[in-house]
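Predict structure. Chain length: 128.
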Amino acid sequence: MHKVTLETESYLIEGKDNERFFPFLELEYNENVIYENDIPKYYLGFSDNLNSAYGIGDWIITEWKKNDYDLRKTIIELGESMNLKWDVFSTNVGKKIEGSWKLETIELNRLTDKEIEKIKLTVNKLQP
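Prediction complete.
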């Protein structure tokens, strides 16, 4: 399965015309959404015991341990290695316009080794 569909709510972001923020409040402790440029783009799921990530080799667990189990730092570094702005948090938290909440169904790409290789190829083609 290359895509994951999640249901969430979104709200309009103050100061940004018609741009919505997706907080994903219903995620389990072993599920993460990776934002690219503040847009939810990838889903990363770990096993229940957090000893492996579905579809990703053991290298991510090794990197996570090197970063003192700081997943955010690990994801930011992974994004930077591909010249992308990745994070597990959005900078738009708390900038909501009251009364703008609505239900959403979001389709995310499952982050796997195969997906990372595809991203690298795409980024390399775009760079001069």
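Summary: The chain has three helices and six strands.
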